[in-house]
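A reminder from the course coordinator: this example appears on the midterm review sheet, so study it carefully.

Given structure:
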């Protein structure tokens, strides 16, 4: 697929440095009107599930290739890497995630998704962009266009990536394992943003520290001894054992972890039994575990093993039928923590360029996770900044549906345009023409 640039957009790529610097907002708005609005509409109507972003990946590769970037596809599955070298200087990577969610969209929007896709489990599911990733990839294309137009303002190497499978938190790690930092220029800095339904349009948040919690997916198989429901003494009821495990797990964050530390153990799935009067021999639990530091994470994970085993033993489960606890080898991520000094540099340029009123600060309202953490792990040496862009008009915040809801909706124009402006300004601040 080949994407053609309009004459007007081609002109943007050859404009003078002064015009490009002074007219960023106007240039981004013009690009939105002529290109990005239609691109967002396409992505919103055509979401794809985690690891299956085949058409989305192809479209992103075509868009970035048309702008003159050196594009490679198939990194970590469906990941796309685009490189633009512009003289000597730092390397900055900007990431956008591509995947949708298995939800039936009920937003009422004219461009609501009706897409369906067969997932990796072989089951056909509805698909929806219920977390704003359509905003992210649209803005990445807009950022790519502006960075090309503004080459006179920065020096270094720009790496843009369209990442798969953020929703299942294995896409970032897959790209790193596939040689992202060895086959391509390794970044000194990495940037990403997330559009937020609980933040007003026109607003930005750039935390100086933690931005997202760790996440681990745990499966527990609780074994029992099946029997007739009228003769419970002849068996061991795994539903009762599993229920006790669920309740006892809540003592981990409430009694084993410092109350000033963030810690969550949520049992999101409980499946067992086949009929009213049959005591089954197995119950399956699925958990998500969240924390804000490595020590708490380890304490929670080890505690789950201990609680599952100890509860079962206390309820008479024999040694050869104790619960089986499995930590997912792929669906996990450490916490995402911004590099404070780099985040402050980004905040300073956004405040001076966009106005102090654009930057806001609020308390975290939950423990969402984000696999951007794999790009900026301490051992990588890459300094990361992950920020938020407001997606809901201020007068609609009170009733705005949350992320991962079938009712989720974002105002695309202010979200995309501010996302592009902030990304461009941040990247230029980290790759200045004149060394700091």
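Designed residues:
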């Amino acid at each position: 697929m080949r994407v053609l640039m309009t004459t007007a957009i081609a002109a943007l790529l050859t404009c003078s440095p002064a015009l490009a610097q002074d007219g960023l907002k106007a240039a981004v708005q013009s690009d939105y009107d002529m290109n990005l609005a239609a691109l967002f509409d396409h992505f919103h109507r055509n979401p794809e599930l985690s690891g299956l972003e085949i058409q989305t990946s192809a479209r992103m590769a075509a868009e970035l290739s048309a702008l003159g970037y050196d594009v490679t596809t198939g990194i970590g599955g469906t990941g796309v890497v685009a490189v633009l070298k512009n003289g000597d200087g730092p390397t900055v990577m900007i990431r956008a995630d591509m995947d949708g969610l298995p939800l039936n969209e009920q937003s009422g929007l004219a461009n609501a998704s009706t897409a369906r896709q067969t997932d990796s489990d072989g089951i056909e599911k509805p698909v929806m962009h219920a977390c704003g990733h359509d905003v992210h990839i649209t803005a990445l294309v807009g950022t790519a266009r502006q960075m090309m137009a503004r080459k006179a303002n920065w020096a270094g190497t720009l790496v843009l990536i369209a990442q798969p499978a953020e929703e299942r938190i294995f896409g970032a790690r897959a790209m790193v394992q596939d040689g992202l930092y060895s086959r391509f220029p390794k970044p000194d800095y990495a940037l990403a943003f997330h559009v937020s339904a609980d933040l007003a349009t026109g607003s930005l948040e750039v935390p100086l520290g933690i931005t997202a919690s760790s996440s681990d997916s745990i499966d527990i198989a609780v074994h029992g001894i099946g029997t007739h429901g009228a003769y419970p003494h002849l068996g061991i009821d795994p539903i009762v054992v599993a229920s006790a495990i669920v309740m006892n797990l809540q003592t981990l964050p409430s009694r084993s972890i410092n109350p000033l530390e963030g810690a969550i153990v949520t049992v999101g799935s409980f499946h067992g039994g086949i009929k009213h009067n049959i005591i089954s021999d197995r119950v399956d639990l699925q958990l998500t575990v969240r924390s804000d530091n490595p020590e708490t994470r380890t304490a929670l994970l080890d505690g789950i093993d201990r609680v599952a085993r100890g509860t079962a033993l206390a309820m008479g489960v024999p040694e050869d039928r104790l619960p089986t606890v499995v930590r997912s080898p792929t669906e996990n991520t450490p916490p995402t923590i911004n590099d404070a000094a780099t985040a402050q540099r980004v905040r300073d340029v956004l405040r001076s360029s966009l106005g102090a009123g654009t930057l806001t600060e609020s308390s975290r309202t939950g423990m969402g996770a984000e696999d951007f953490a794999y790009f900026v792990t301490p051992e990588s040496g890459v300094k990361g900044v992950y920020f938020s862009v407001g997606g809901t008009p201020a007068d609609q915040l009170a009733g705005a549906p949350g992320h991962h809801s079938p009712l989720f909706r974002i105002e695309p124009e202010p979200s995309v345009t501010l996302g592009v402006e902030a990304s461009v300004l941040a990247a230029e601040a980290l790759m200045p023409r004149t060394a700091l």
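The chain is about 35% helix and 25% strand. The domain at 214-333 is CATH 3.30.70.360 (Alpha-Beta Plaits).
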